[in-house]
Amino acid sequence: MSYARSEYEDFKRIAPDAYDLVLALGQVAAKAGLDKQLLELVKLRASQINGCAFCVQHHVLLSERIGVPVDKLHLVAVWREAPIFSARERAALAWAEALTCLSDGVSAEVYAEASREFSETELTYLTSAVASINVWNRFGAAFRWTPAKRPVAATSATS
Predict the structure, then answer these.
(1) CA nearest 91: which of 71, 106, 104?
(2) Which tens digits make up the pLDDT trace of 15-35?
(3) Structure pTM?
(4) Secondary structure string (H, E, C) spanning the chain
(5) Distance, CA of 119 to CA of 115 (rounded, Å)
(6) Which domains are present in the chain?
(7) Cα→Cα distances 131→12, 63, 76, 94, 156, Å
(8) Which residues, including other chains, have CB under 8 Å from residue 6's CB and lie 6 or more apart?
(9) What is the pLDDT of residues 96-147, one digit of tens each?
(10) At what angle do helices 87-100 and 36-50 cross, to 10 degrees?
(11) pLDDT tens digit string along 49-98?
């Protein structure tokens, strides 16, 4: 039984111009040179906060494909308590949480921490990545897109 109201593929079909714009916004941070693993951690954390199962699964699977350590994926929800994250990752995760939970605003402390770790240009592109994932989360959560299934690993034939 599916709980989906519509699916990701429906969004591409129904509103291709909106799809293309959100997709493009989500790609500019990596094109600008921000670390792809860091961006995936940020996107995963925002998706957890927003309760978007489709995006959580999507970014877990993508993170695994690009080599994000499994321990980081397991601990991103509690990153403040996990010493595995670098200062730069911590600053990015704090920035993502502040921008995802905007009702609390962005504190001077979070801004200062992010500004220490990221140049003005990097922080602007990091903000675009957070903005993009929050847009994706709105669609995914609203329409309850079905999360992708984990690909089945090919098994070798043994005799």
Answers:
(1) 106
(2) 999 999 999 999 999 999 999
(3) 0.92
(4) CCCCCCCHHHHHHHCHHHHHHHHHHHHHHHHCCCCHHHHHHHHHHHHHHHCCHHHHHHHHHHHHHCCCCHHHHHHHHHHHHCCCCCHHHHHHHHHHHHHHCHHHCCCHHHHHHHHHHCCHHHHHHHHHHHHHHHHHHHHHHHHCCCCCCCCCCCCCCCC
(5) 6
(6) 8-143 (1.20.1290.10)
(7) 19, 19, 19, 14, 42
(8) 14, 143, 145
(9) 999 999 998 899 999 999 999 999 999 999 999 999 999 999 999 999 999 9
(10) 40
(11) 999 999 999 999 999 999 999 999 999 999 999 999 999 999 999 999 99
Long-range contacts of 67-76 (CB under 8 A, 24+ apart): 67/37, 68/37, 68/40, 68/41, 72/41, 73/44, 76/41, 76/44, 76/45, 76/48
Query: Token pair 């699977």 is at which residue?
Result: 61
| Cβ within 8 Å of residue 27, ≥6 positions away | none
